[in-house]
Design a protein that fits this description.
alpha+beta, 3-stranded antiparallel β-sheet, 97 residues, 5 helices
């Protein structure tokens, strides 16, 4: 039981570290509205594509985003399972109120 608690806290630590950056938060905010490529995110944020790629890798490693290949581009998005989870939590909170 103790091992599961440690693993859970490590997951939270990784996720919170991934979100502890203004640029990554802006990326997440954009991706909540839909998919985007590295170049699109660079244009929106005003951050160089190379740096956006580094931020995306951190977010992907944390499990907050996922990517798919479209031609030569990588398209990033928030995983559907994560969005569904958040919607269920929001609905549960509304029914309690």
């Amino acid at each position: 039981m103790k091992k599961a608690s440690i693993e859970t806290s490590v997951d939270w630590t990784v996720m919170l570290k991934a979100l502890a950056d203004e640029t990554r938060l802006r990326i997440i905010k954009k991706l909540l509205g839909g998919e985007a490529s590295v170049n699109r995110l660079a244009n929106i944020t005003g951050v160089e594509a190379y740096n956006i790629s580094k931020h995306l890798k951190i977010l992907e490693t944390s499990g907050l985003i996922e990517k798919r290949k479209e031609g030569v581009q990588r398209i990033y998005r928030i995983p559907t399972s994560y969005i569904n989870q958040q919607a269920k939590k929001e609905n549960a909170a509304k029914t309690r109120d």
